[in-house]
Specification:
Blueprint: E1 2-5, H1 15-26, E2 32-35, H2 48-60, E3 66-71, H3 75-82, E4 89-92, H4 95-105, E5 109-113, H5 122-134, H6 147-164, H7 169-175, H8 178-185, H9 188-197, H10 201-211
Helix pairs in contact: 1-5, 2-3, 2-8, 4-5
Length: about 210
């Protein structure tokens, strides 16, 4: 699995801590981690709005399988990511959230709070969230006797989201403020991850056109 970590401006100083905990869990499981957002407060400036665009492009191009995002409370990042087609983001404040999201909703992104209650042992909480998010089989339901309706409902939700967003994905990108999208894709580490792993020529061509 390819996992993208993306941090926005207000919590960029937490990036080394979160990256260390994510890598410590993901790499022994043979997942690849790409640090595509801000790595410190002086880095390429991003807001949680940009994170949604970045996650959308990475997931829809199949450059990335899973996104770990967040902001001060995690709520803005979750809302921003869930706006976009193909992105199903859950809110994870504690390890149980990650386990239940993994088993019941089986989405492809999580949003975390990097300021709210981020105090003593916060790095341990982050590590345990990642352990629950990336270990074990996914989509098995909880409790197990509720597996069938939970799997069915998760599939229905994906169908509803696809029906609501009917336009061609490139048209969706072009409908947004192009300066906003350009900022989202202008980071050096984002581009390295995207261009090396993108599996959709149409999306790649759009991003290259935008960066000219």
């Amino acid at each position: 699995m390819k996992i993208a970590l993306m941090m926005e401006n207000s919590q960029a100083n937490k990036n080394p801590v979160i990256l260390n905990e994510l890598s410590g869990v993901a790499e022994p499981l043979e997942h690849e981690v790409f640090n595509v957002g801000m790595s410190d407060e002086k880095d390429h400036h991003l807001t949680y709005i940009h994170l949604g665009i970045m996650a959308s492009i990475l997931i829809n191009s199949k450059a990335i399988d899973f996104v770990v995002a967040g902001c001060g409370t995690g709520q803005g990042a979750m809302m921003s990511l869930n706006v976009h087609p193909g992105v199903n983001c859950g809110y994870c404040f504690e390890p149980a959230d990650a386990f239940l999201f993994n088993q019941i909703n089986n989405g492809n992104a999580i949003a975390m709070a990097f300021a709210k209650d981020f105090g003593w042992a916060a790095e341990l909480n982050a590590r345990y969230i990642f352990e629950k998010a990336f270990t074990g089989n996914r989509g098995e339901g909880y409790p197990v006797e509720r597996r069938e309706p939970q799997v069915e409902n998760a599939g229905i939700l994906n169908q509803v989201k696809a029906a609501v967003i009917k336009d061609n994905y490139i048209d969706t990108l072009r409908a947004m403020d192009q300066d906003l999208v350009k900022t989202a894709v202008s980071g050096e580490r984002f581009q390295e991850c995207f261009f090396e792993n993108c599996q959709n020529p149409e999306i790649e061509a759009y991003v290259r056109e935008l960066l000219v």
